[in-house]
Amino acid sequence: MKRPEKPAREFISPSDLTFGLSTCRRCLWIKYWYKITAPLSMPLVGTLSQLQEGSFRGISTAAIDPLLRAGTVTKWGEWVKSRIIEINGEQSRWRILGKYDLIADNEDGTVALIDCKVSDSDRDSGAFYSPQLEAYAFALENPAAGKAVEVASMGLLIWKPISTLGDPATANDNTGFGVRQSYVPVERDSDGFQVKIKSVIELLEGEMPGSGENCEQCAFIEKRDKALSE
Predict the structure, then answer these.
(1) For 109, left (φ over 0), alpha (ψ -120 to 50), or beta?
(2) Which helix (H) or strand (E) holds 126?
(3) Which InterPro entries match (predicted)?
(4) Cβ contacts of residue 220 below 8 Å, gap of 6+?
């Protein structure tokens, strides 16, 4: 496959530093050079995210986790764009562009970055999501425009569904799911982010890589093409 003269997009999504790299490097490369992605069907994700994020607007950080610095959630669902990323002292063509979930303004002038999850996945850990949150933090601390802010803390605010609530026979607005809420702090790792983003940019600037071993999309395409050619 001949690579175009320039990529279809030059903004790296924070989520691609976790899900993109861990799934399939070929699909990630095609996404940025050709703007082609496989269709996803997750109709409830947006709705659940909005409901969860909305419930924490104006809430104190102490209500989320008593170990967080004193502050209040003041921003939610806003896009952030970073300055151009430098690799080995030289400017690349790439920036970070993404939409965070929650930002709390701390009383000491710093901010807390909080990523919301409605999930029961075993990989809801600080280690897995650290590159994604560091990408948001990089954009906040190195914005393309506007005032930079210091990200003092990062963390995952997880709702894990564990029960049903109300009487389903009544089918009213008080029927729903009960969740167990937890806050998982994510340690700052700016050096680790620099290593990660460098590897992503080197991947994108190279030739198309091979398929990921566990990529369901590539496996489907290969099986389909093989069946059609027989």
Answers:
(1) left
(2) helix 126-141
(3) PDDEXK-like_dom_sf (IPR011604), PDDEXK_AddAB-type (IPR038726)
(4) none
User: 3-state DSSP helix/strand/coil percent for the chain, to nearest 5?
Assistant: 35, 25, 40
What residues does each domain of the chain span?
A: 15-23+42-200
State how far the Cα of 28 lies from the Cα of 45, in Å rounded to an integer.
21
How many C-beta atoms lie closer than 10 Å to residue 135's C-beta? 28
Query: Residue 161: beta bridge partners?
Result: 179
Question: Of 14, 156, 7, which is closest to residue 81 (Cα–Cα)?
Answer: 14
Tell me: the pLDDT tens digits for 134-148?
A: 999 999 999 999 999
Contact 73, 104 (CB under 8 A): yes
Alpha carbons 230 and 214: distance in angstroms, whole number: 24
Four-residue CA torsion sign, 42, 23, 81, 131: positive
Could you tell me the pTM of the whole model?
0.91
Q: What is the pLDDT of residues 92-127, one digit of tens each?
A: 999 999 999 999 999 999 999 999 998 887 766 788
Cα gap 101→226, rounded to integer Å: 42
- Class of the 15-23+42-200 domain? alpha beta
Cβ atoms within 10 Å, residue 164:
11
